[in-house]
Amino acid sequence: MVHELAEYERAPEQCHLTEEQLTSALFGSAPALFGHVAVDDADEPIGFALWFLNFSTWEGVHGVYLEDLYVRPTARGTGAGRLLLATLAAICVERGYRRLDWWMLNWNPAARFYAAIGATPMDEWVPYRLAGPALHALAAQVPAAPTRPDA
């Protein structure tokens, strides 16, 4: 379904995730990614939420960052997306987290749904990303760790 999401977001060529990578991220020795799957009455998957913990230095507590929320087109309007978000909200409340954050493409019609559940856009913050050659160029600026003669 992650590849379905990439297709929906008009960027299928950018999605390189493999089943092995996702399995390792979710179920490896030290998972940092968590997920929930919505299923229909026939136990077929119809949606998912993938998330990880973030931390607010101002609040002093963790929060949930929703990396991806996707409901298959045939299941939209069934309440699956609301239930996935409600599940994450319940995790936040149960654990004392104060925020559930996510990004959304500016053309996504889900904005109406998010507004209906009380979510507000954070238009005062500008997202930045460092990737590819720029990431490698910056990383190369770290001086090599000196070697100790007694090590």
Helix and strand succession?
Answer: HHEEEHEHH
Uncertain runs with pLDDT below 50, 5 residues or more? none
Helix content: 25-40%
* Gyration radius, rounded: 19 Å
Strand proportion = 15-25%
Main beta-sheet strand count, sense and barrel state: 4 strands, mixed
* Tally of helical runs: 5
Could you report the average pLDDT, rounded to the nearest whole number? 94
Secondary-structure-based class equals: alpha+beta
Strand order of the largest sheet: 1-2-3-4
Annotation, overall tally of beta strands:
4
| Intertermini distance | 49 Å
Shape: globular
Topology:
Blueprint: H1 2-8, H2 19-27, E1 34-39, E2 45-56, E3 61-71, H3 80-95, E4 100-102, H4 110-116, H5 132-139
Parallel strand pairs: 3-4
Antiparallel strand pairs: 1-2, 2-3
Q: How would you describe the overall organization of this protein?
A:
The chain has five helices and four strands, in the order ααβββαβαα. The chain is an alpha+beta fold and 151 residues long. It has a four-stranded mixed β-sheet, with helices on one face. The mean pLDDT is 94.
Which labels suit this protein?
single chain, 5 helices, alpha+beta, globular, 151 residues, 4 strands
Describe this structure in a few short sentences.
With 151 residues, the protein is an alpha+beta fold.
